[in-house]
Amino acid sequence: MSHSMNTPAFEEAASAASSALGGAGLRELAGRVAEGWPEQAILGSVRDRATVAPVLAALSTHAVPSAEAAAFLRGLAAGHAAATGEVSVETVWTGPSSHSVPVRSTAQALLDVIAEARSELVLMTYSARRRPDIREALAAAVARGVSVSVVVETLAGAGGAISGTEPGQAFTGIGGVDLWHWPTDRREGKGAKAHAKLAVADRRTLLVSSANLTQSGVSTNMEAGLLVRGGAAPRRVAEHVAELRSRGVLERIRVGDH
User: How many whole angstroms separate alpha carbon 205 and alpha carbon 34?
Assistant: First the structure.
């Protein structure tokens, strides 16, 4: 973050705001900055305008690139959460948005969860299609040593409710990504589906959403979810998926590229 490191006024203003805003507030501000919201729209969406205003003024005065400013704010948020043991819950949304009720976009929230992972990442989805940004983020996670597991539904398991290519093909060609599925002969009840949609990073961050990992799911449909950082929920979900794998309820699957 070379630009922000050369702008102490922005760093000082952001650091001064961290205690008042807390981790959740810093992440919300980072999200608005990253998405290019106008300054007045950001100020209209926050509770503590007096705290946020100097941060935005410093960002504008010193022409700090939005991506770098957002990364710095998220770093402050992570540090605040680690120091305080904070648990935060944010609303995540796909579809029409409003400045009066600010929410995180599903696509950005998912990419953030993937980017945060340092040791373990678990994804679950019903339907999936190839998205370059998600694939690039997963490849980068593998490259930095993250163990990546993706649980997908299959065409057979969906029973005709999903058409086209196997959902698992959204992840083929990314070395180091392990694919899992719920075999149809291990499902209780006719028509049972592997319908969960979630992402868990390092057992500390959990995204639960109605959105599939498709273009429409994370970008155009009207979908809703929650992003949870800290607390027991991320750990318990990751532990549950790990237990399903160890008991053989979930099984590895190989999906061809074509």
Answer: 20
Identify the band that residue 99 occupies on the pLDDT scale cut at 50, 70 and 90: low
**Does pTM top 0.85 for this prediction?**
no
Q: Which secondary-structure segment (H or E) carries 240?
A: helix 232-246
How far is 13 from 27, CA to CA, in rounded Å? 15
Task: Give the pairing of strands 88-94 and 147-152.
Answer: unpaired
For 5, the token pair is: 């490191």
pLDDT in tens, 214-248: 888 887 889 999 999 888 899 999 999 999 999 99
- From residue 125, alpha-carbon distances to 1, 10, 119 in Å are 33, 39, 20
* pLDDT tens digits, 180-215: 999 999 998 888 999 999 999 999 999 999 999 888
For residues 81-103, average pLDDT? 74
The separation between the first and the last C-alpha atoms of the chain, rounded to the nearest angstrom, is 40
- Residues 6 or more apart in contact with residue 255 via CB below 8 angstroms: 166, 168, 169, 171, 172, 179
110, 207 Cβ separation under 8 angstroms: yes
Q: 87-121 in b/e burial notation, b at 16+ Cβ within 10 A?
A: ebebebbbeeeeeeebbbbbbbbbbbbbbbbeebb
Residue 206 DSSP SS3: strand
Q: Which residues on adjacent β-strands are paired with residue 181?
A: 251
- Please report which helix (H) or strand (E) contains residue 94, including its range: strand 88-94
Measured CA to CA, the distance from residue 243 to residue 237 in angstroms comes to: 10
Structure tokens, 98:
């409003």
Q: Which of 97, 94, 93, 100 is nearest to 41 (CA)?
A: 100
